[in-house]
Amino acid sequence: MTSSPTPGLTRFNTLDDSAASAELHEVCASSAWGSKLLAQRPYATVDALFAASDAAMAELTAADLGEAMEGHPPIGRPKPGDPTSAREQRGMAGASEELKAELLELNLAYQDKFGHVFLICATGATGEQMRDAVRIRIENDAETEREIARGELVKINRIRLTRLAEGE
Fold this sequence. Notes:
Low-confidence stretches: none
Mean pLDDT: 89
Structural class: mainly alpha
C-alpha cells in the first residue's frame, strides 16, 4: 500500500498508549487484538500495520473472537449515532421494509444458532447480498462459521485501519 508512514499513521504511532488503545478499540473490540497491535508500535508502513493486525487476528481465541464480534451491531441495525457502522452498512439504507424484516428474522435465527451476531464485511455490499450470505452461512457448523467470521473481521479491520492511517 504505502512505503512510508502516512500522516495518520505517524499520528497513531506517537499517541500515548491510552489514546492509541482507544483508537484500536474503535477498529476492533477485542482487547487481545488491540494489545498485540499496541505492543508493536511504531509501524513504519500501513502494510506493516496490516500484517500485525492479520497476525493478531489469526491468534485470537474463540473468546477473543466473541469479544471482537460484540463490537459489531447486527446487519440492518447500525448503532445509533455511530458513523462507522452506518457507513459500513450503507447497503441497507435503501432496503425495503420486507428485506429489513427478513434480515432481522435471519439475524435472530443466526444468533440463536451461533451465539453471536452475523458478521460480514458489509462495505460495498447490498442488502440482498448480505441477506443471501446469512442464508448460506447459517447452514455452517460453529467452527466453520467462527473461521469465516474471523476472515470477515480481517477485512473490516483493514478498512478501519486504512481510515485510521489516512487520518480520518
